[in-house]
Design a protein that fits this description.
- By secondary structure, the protein is α/β, with parallel strands linked by helices.
- The chain has 14 helices and 9 strands.
- The protein has helices at residues 2-8, 14-42, 57-72, 93-98, 109-115, 131-139, 141-154, 194-202, 215-221, 231-236, 262-266, 270-304, 314-326, 338-343; strands spanning 44-49, 77-82, 104-107, 156-171, 187-190, 206-209, 226-230, 245-261, 308-310.
- Strands 1, 2, 3, 4, 5, 6, 7, 8 and 9 form a 9-stranded mixed sheet that branches.
- Helix 3 (57-72) packs antiparallel against helix 12 and helix 6 (131-139) crosses helix 7.
- The longest helix has 35 residues, at 270-304.
- The N and C termini lie far apart (65 Å).
- It binds 3-deoxy-alpha-D-manno-oct-2-ulopyranosonic acid.
- The site of 3-deoxy-alpha-D-manno-oct-2-ulopyranosonic acid has 12 residues, from loops.
- 3-deoxy-alpha-D-manno-oct-2-ulopyranosonic acid is lined by residues 50-52, 56, 58, 90, 106, 108, 191, 212, 229, 233.
C-alpha cells in the first residue's frame, strides 16, 4: 500500500520528485514511530490509593497484584501503588474514582454505605461470624448482588473481596474491660464516617473520628485512649509501641473490597479483565493467608512484649452491639430479608 502511494507521487518534474521523496521520508518516519506510540497508548495506568502502611498485608497484596498482572499481561498495565494516604485521604477514594481521578482503591463497606445506606448492614458489628462466613457472603450470591448494585449506583466495579482481619479494641493504658459498660468514657478512635462512629459508640466507648494516618501520634500523646483494628495492622502500624492492652472483642470481621472505577473496567478488553480478576484473586489469597496466620501468632508475641491481652465477656459485647444496631436508623434502611439471608449463610 505504501509503495502504491509513493508510485502515485512519482512526478517527472524535479520539484515534484523532491516533494515525493520528502513525503516518503515523512511516511517512513511515521511508520517507524507507530508501534511505540500504539504500545504507549495501550498501557493502562492503574493508580491505587490506600491509607495503609507499606508493611501491612493489604499493601503487600497490591504488589502481588501488580506482579501477577505483569506476568499474565506483560506491558499491558502500569499499576501504581500509593500507600499511607499520600494520593487520596482515607474515605475520599470512592469519590476520586467516580470523578475519574483514580482508577483503583481498597474500599471498606463503610465507604460504600456512605453512598448506599442500605448497605450499612455490612458495617454492623458481630454480623459476620468468622473468615469462613465472610468468604461465603462476599464470594457467593450476596457478594455478586452487592457487586451489581454498587456498579449500577456508584459506578464502581468490585473486583475482589479480601479479609482485612478481625477488629479488636486496644488501649494505651490498661483497664479492666469485661462488658461495654467498662468502656464508658474511653476516647476510642474510629475512622471518620458515621457508620464507624456508630460502631465505636455501640461498643460502649466515646467514639472519636480520626484518619488512620494520625492514630500513632494520637496514641502517643494521649489525644485518644485507644483504637480498634485487626492485630496484623496493629503490628504493621506499630501501635504496639504506644498501647499497653488489647481487649479481644472481635467485634468486626472486616472486609476490604479491591475496587475499580467502572469506566476503567468497562474500557478493558475481555481477556484483560479475566487476567486482572485472576491476579486480584491471587493477591487476596496471599493477603488472607498471611493475615490469618499472623492473627494466630500475634497474641503470644504481644504478650511476650509485655502487652496485656485480655478476654472480655464476648456475649455481653455481642448482645449490646446487636441491640444498638437493631434499633438504629440504619437498620430501617436495610433491604427486607437481607439480614436473615446474611445470617443464614453457612
Ligand atoms: C482504620 O482506619 O481503622 C482502617 O482499619 C479502616 C479500614 O477500612 C481501612 O481503611 C484501613 O484502616 C486502612 O487500610 C489502614 O490499614
Amino acid at each position: 500500500m505504501t509503495a502504491t502511494f509513493l508510485r502515485r507521487l512519482s512526478f517527472r518534474r524535479p520539484a515534484c520528485r523532491v516533494l515525493a521523496s520528502s513525503a516518503a521520508l515523512a511516511l517512513t518516519a511515521l511508520i517507524g514511530f507507530l508501534p511505540a506510540t500504539v504500545e504507549a497508548q495501550a498501557k493502562q495506568v492503574l493508580r491505587l490509593s490506600t491509607p495503609a502502611v507499606p508493611e501491612d498485608w493489604h499493601v503487600k497484596m497490591l504488589y502481588v497484584f501488580k506482579e501477577e498482572l505483569e506476568k499474565s499481561a506483560p506491558g499491558r498495565f502500569d499499576v501504581q501503588v500509593h500507600h499511607s494516604g499520600t494520593l487520596f485521604k482515607q474515605g475520599s477514594e470512592a469519590v476520586a474514582m467516580q470523578r475519574g481521578n483514580l482508577e483503583m482503591a481498597l474500599l471498606s463497606m463503610q465507604d460504600i454505605a456512605k453512598q448506599m445506606p442500605e448497605y450499612s448492614l455490612f458495617t454492623a458489628g458481630y454480623l459476620i461470624r468468622d473468615v469462613d462466613h465472610l468468604n461465603k457472603v462476599y464470594g457467593g450470591p450476596i457478594g455478586q448482588e452487592i457487586g451489581r448494585n454498587v456498579d449500577g449506583k456508584m459506578g464502581i466495579h468490585l473486583v475482589q473481596a479480601a479479609y482485612y482481619g478481625t477488629r479488636q479494641v486496644a488501649l494505651r493504658t490498661p483497664r479492666p474491660i469485661k462488658t461495654p459498660a467498662d468502656l464508658a468514657g474511653v476516647k476510642l478512635r474510629m475512622p471518620g464516617a458515621k457508620e464507624w462512629l456508630f460502631l465505636g459508640n455501640a461498643l460502649g466507648a466515646n467514639a472519636m473520628p480520626l484518619p488512620f494516618t494520625e492514630v500513632y501520634l494520637a496514641l502517643k500523646t494521649g489525644t485518644i485512649d485507644g483504637q480498634d483494628n485487626p492485630l496484623p495492622t496493629f503490628k504493621a502500624a506499630k501501635f504496639n509501641e504506644v498501647s499497653q492492652q488489647i481487649v479481644l472483642t472481635g467485634h468486626l470481621v472486616d472486609v476490604l473490597q479491591l475496587a475499580m472505577a467502572s469506566k476503567t473496567w468497562n474500557g478493558l478488553a475481555a481477556d484483560d479483565r479475566t487476567k486482572l480478576q485472576a491476579a486480584a484473586a491471587k493477591a487476596a489469597r496471599f493477603n488472607n493467608d498471611n493475615r490469618l496466620r499472623e492473627e494466630k501468632e500475634l497474641i503470644e508475641s504481644f504478650r511476650k512484649q509485655g502487652i496485656q491481652v485480655t478476654t472480655p465477656d464476648a456475649e455481653a459485647f455481642r448482645k449490646t452491639v446487636l441491640a444498638a444496631y437493631q434499633k438504629s436508623e440504619m437498620a430501617a434502611q436495610w433491604p427486607k430479608g437481607l439480614l436473615e439471608r446474611v445470617s443464614g449463610v453457612k
